[in-house]
Specification:
The protein is α+β, with helices and mostly antiparallel strands. The chain is built from six helices and 15 strands. Strand 11 and strand 12 form a beta hairpin.
Length: 271
Amino acid sequence: MAFIIGFTASDEKETNKNKVVSSQNTQLPPRKSLVDVHFVENNCTLTYYNDEFYLHCGDMVYVDGKLEGVRGRVVSVNYNFKIKISDYKRVVAVVDTNVSGKLYIAGSHFLSFERDVINMEKVCQWFMPPKNDDEPFVSGSDGRAFRLDDLGDMDVSTLVAQRGHDYYMQNRVRYICIDGAKGYAIVEGSEVYEVEFCFNNGEISELVCSCFCSYNCKHEFASMLQLKETLEFISKHYADEYKRTGYFAAINKGTLFYFAVDTKETGTFTI
């Protein structure tokens, strides 16, 4: 069964206003503001200067300073102020939590077969700040491969397999997608980890994780279990959709609702 689910934080007046501005090929600069940002992980609320973004209460942001890399939520926006800029840290990024498109129910996850609905770039920022281009990542492969339908060849210890299975059962694989032969997953443990791999004719290769283990880890094993479940679900219920695009993305239901719904103070929700 498929559901049409759309989330938007814009009301009708705001949408019409945006259309008028767009038609005139003009773009007003963001209003300078002081914003209070609450950080759940640190149980604190701090004030930041903003001159780059249109911010509203409920927006998720990243900042610089001591809490760089920690996601926070805007709880108030103040336009009436006079400050010394050097006394304040800044908002450096806003998380795009708008989701609109066709989603399919697949057990604990929602599925999309269109690349622009819950794409990797969007969801990645829900969990991690924008990557710093000055610090490039490199990875290597030992050339090993294994069949997804036989994870016994994955060469993990019993302990790692058990921990990975626990992560899988706890729905810690928040997101997983395959685009052609390239695969990507987000696993949430004590930190958030990125798992990358290649998938071709049922075979997994070039499997790496950002936890930087020199061996196959629990995050990778959990991702493979989630991938196996998702592909079996697709084969049974949505094979034509996957065949049509050669792409799928699966996101945990709770994750989608937390970011795409709970962050909004206004908007529409359609099923």
